[in-house]
Automatic annotation (TrEMBL):
<comment type="subunit">
    <text>Homohexamer.</text>
</comment>
<comment type="similarity">
    <text>In the central section; belongs to the AAA ATPase family.</text>
</comment>
<protein>
    <recommendedName>
        <fullName>ATP-dependent zinc metalloprotease FtsH</fullName>
    </recommendedName>
</protein>
<feature type="domain" description="AAA+ ATPase">
    <location>
        <begin position="49"/>
        <end position="188"/>
    </location>
</feature>
<feature type="binding site">
    <location>
        <begin position="57"/>
        <end position="64"/>
    </location>
    <ligand>
        <name>ATP</name>
    </ligand>
</feature>
<comment type="function">
    <text>Acts as a processive, ATP-dependent zinc metallopeptidase for both cytoplasmic and membrane proteins. Plays a role in the quality control of integral membrane proteins.</text>
</comment>
<comment type="similarity">
    <text>In the C-terminal section; belongs to the peptidase M41 family.</text>
</comment>
C-alpha cells in the first residue's frame, strides 16, 4: 500500500542538540544540511553531493535519531521505513513500496529517505532458497535501481542504518550508492553524561543525585539504554509514590537495564 510513502511528521522537530556525543558523526552528517537547504547552489557549480549515506553502529547509539535530526536541521520532509517491514510481504509488494517512497520523496525534494535495519533486506544476494528471485531480493534490487536512477541534481539524501555492515551485499556499497559511511560508537563516560543531561531535562531528580556517578557506573550502555535507565528509575519512584527520583532508584534501574542487556546479547546470533 501507500503506507511507506507518507512522510513522518514528528510532533517536535529533532535537531543536532538532541544528539549527545557522536561529534564526529554529527560533523559528517551536518555537511549535508547546507546541500539540502539550498541544492541549487551546489548543482550550479557542478558539485556532486552523495545520495547514499550508511549509518553504522551498535543498536541504540542514535542512528535513527541522527537521521531525524538531519531532517530537522535542514527542515525537509523525512520518509522513513525499516528493512524488517519488507520481510513477510508478497513478491513485488516490497519493490512497489520502495518505488512509491522514492517517487514521493523526489516529488517533495529536497527530502530525506531513511531505511532502518538495511541488513534485513540488504544481505548478500543469492544465498536464500528463493533462487535469487524472492521478494527480499526484488526489494533490494529496487533500492539499487532507485539509487542508480538519481541524477546528480536531485536533492534526495538516502540514509540507511545497520548494525551489521559485514553482512551487506557489496553491491550496496558501490560508488553512487551507499558510498559514504558514518560510524556511531557506544558512548564513553563523558558522552554518557551528555546523553543523561539530554534526557533528565523533565525529570525531578532529588538533590543528591550525581549524574557523573551514573555515567561512570554504566560502561557499555548505549544512548537507548541510558534513556531506558532514567525511565525505569522514574517508574520505581512512582511506585513508591515519591515526588522525586533518588540515587537508589537509579541504582535499581541500572541493574534492571543491565540484566536486560545481558539477556538481549545472549540471544543474538
Ligand atoms: P537501533 O539500531 O536499535 O534502531 P539506533 O541506533 O537507531 O538503534 P535510536 O533509535 O536512534 O538508535 O536510539 C533510541 C533512543 O535512544 C533515541 O530515540 C534517543 O532517545 C536515545 N538516544 C540514543 N542515542 C542518543 C544520543 N547520542 N543522544 C541522546 N539520546 C540518544
Amino acid at each position: 500500500g501507500g503506507r511507506a510513502a507518507k512522510p513522518v511528521k514528528p510532533t517536535r522537530k529533532v535537531t543536532f542538540a538532541d544528539v549527545a556525543g557522536q561529534d564526529e558523526a554529527k560533523r559528517e552528517v551536518s555537511e549535508l544540511v547546507e546541500f539540502l537547504r539550498d541544492p541549487d547552489r551546489f548543482s550550479k557549480v557542478g558539485a556532486t553531493v552523495p545520495h547514499g549515506v550508511l549509518l553504522m553502529g551498535p543498536p541504540g547509539t542514535g542512528k535513527t535519531l541522527l537521521a531525524r535530526a538531519l531532517a530537522g536541521e535542514a527542515d525537509v520532509p523525512f520518509f522513513s521505513t525499516s528493512g524488517s517491514e519488507f520481510i513477510e510481504v508478497f513478491v513485488g509488494v516490497g519493490a512497489g513500496r520502495v518505488r512509491k517512497m522514492f517517487e514521493e520523496a523526489r516529488k517533495q525534494s529536497p527530502s530525506i529517505i531513511f531505511i532502518d535495519e538495511l541488513d534485513s533486506i540488504g544481505r548478500t544476494r543469492g544465498t536464500g532458497l528463493g533462487g535469487g528471485h524472492d521478494e527480499r531480493e526484488q526489494t533490494l534490487n529496487q533500492i539499487l535501481a532507485e539509487l542508480d536512477g538519481f541524477s546528480p541534481r536531485e536533492a534526495v539524501v538516502v540514509l540507511a542504518a545497520t548494525n551489521r555492515p559485514d553482512v551487506l551485499d557489496p553491491a550496496l556499497l558501490r560508488p553512487g550508492r551507499f558510498d559514504r559511511h558514518v560510524t556511531l560508537e557506544l558512548p564513553d563516560k563523558g558522552a554518557r553524561r551528555a546523553i543523561l543531561d539530554v534526557h533528565v531535562k523533565d525529570l525531578p531528580l532529588r538533590h543528591d543525585v550525581d549524574l557523573d556517578q551514573v555515567a561512570a557506573g554504566t560502561p557499555g550502555f548505549s544512548g537507548a539504554d541510558l534513556k531506558n535507565l532514567l525511565n525505569e528509575a522514574a517508574i520505581t519512584a512512582a511506585r513508591r509514590s515519591a515526588a522525586d527520583i533518588t540515587p537508589d532508584d537509579l541504582d535499581q534501574a541500572r541493574d534492571k537495564v543491565m540484566m536486560g542487556t545481558v539477556r538481549t546479547l545472549a540471544i543474538q546470533p
